[in-house]
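Duplicate of earlier report; MoaB/Mog domain-containing protein input re-posted below.
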Amino acid sequence: LKLEGMTKEREKMSYLPQGSIPLPNIRGTAPGVKLTEGDTTIFILPGVPSEMKVIFQNVVKPILKERREKYVKSGFKKWNTVWRERAIEKYEEIKNNRRQNNRY
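Output:
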């Protein structure tokens, strides 16, 4: 197996949304991502089930348990397929709506 180094494809996969926090992945190379705007938090996890499960168990679940004592408005929303670009678009939409709603 020949190591190819940093290819264009690998470089593209390494991009994270501005202001996001990478979530460690001990099963693979793709990190999870945590985006927060105001009191809304979005978690984006890799599509490989074993990687998704380990990030959820080790990182996301403890965060949700901690917040459960304060508030969890809407549990989980399951998406069969979420492309990174669509998730980022949705995050920007939520952020823009929040800004518009906070104008007096």
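DSSP finds three helices and three strands in the chain.

Merging into the original ticket.
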